[in-house]
Amino acid sequence: MNKRIYLTGLGITVTLLSVLPIDNMPAIARLVNVGTEIADNILRQPKVNLNLVAQQKQIKKDAQGKEVVSWKVLDEKTLVKPGDIIRFTVTGRNEGNKTAKDVAFTQKIAKGTVYSLNSATSSGATITYSIDQGKTFVANPIVKVTLANGKVEERPAPAEAYTHLRWNFNQELAPNAEIQATYLAKVR
Fold first, then answer.
1. Which of 62, 136, 158, 184 has the largest CB neighbor count within 10 A?
2. Are 37 and 54 in a shared domain?
3. What gap in Å lies between CA 128 and CA 21, rounded to an integer?
4. What pLDDT, on the 0 to 100 scale, is given for residue 114?
5. Is 97 in the same domain as 23?
6. Which residue segment(s) compose the domain that 60 sits in?
């Protein structure tokens, strides 16, 4: 009995939508058009895909005994040890058909690593940092330290306190264009 009432109510709704005009068009047709417009708009949106690559710093000596730095891409077989330096590179590519505006990357500091202070780079981006698991971001994180005499001072946050980095790009990202951000971290 309840199913029949529900189905009858649904039939009445569909009938009303197909008869009632909205903007000189049956309501059901208008709803279909709105759905199509939404789908078309989504397809025209910028589509920025992000790619993260981690590389281990390699130092070797050349024939003259001079140190030469190279970077080896980490894979599942790569072993890292405490003190190793890892370079993280985030690349954003606009694979959509529309220019992307206000692009921002947020990257969590990898577990088991410590951010290397002042190592974050990118052209055209404002870089901010979080020391509270990504809740807030500032250019220069500060911590409060209680001294032996009980006085509290504000000091720059130590590298171990950093939890996230954020790059806010001020320029527009055209279709097929890329932007890149990097930072270094030391394995604990």
1. 184
2. no
3. 52
4. 98
5. no
6. 48-187
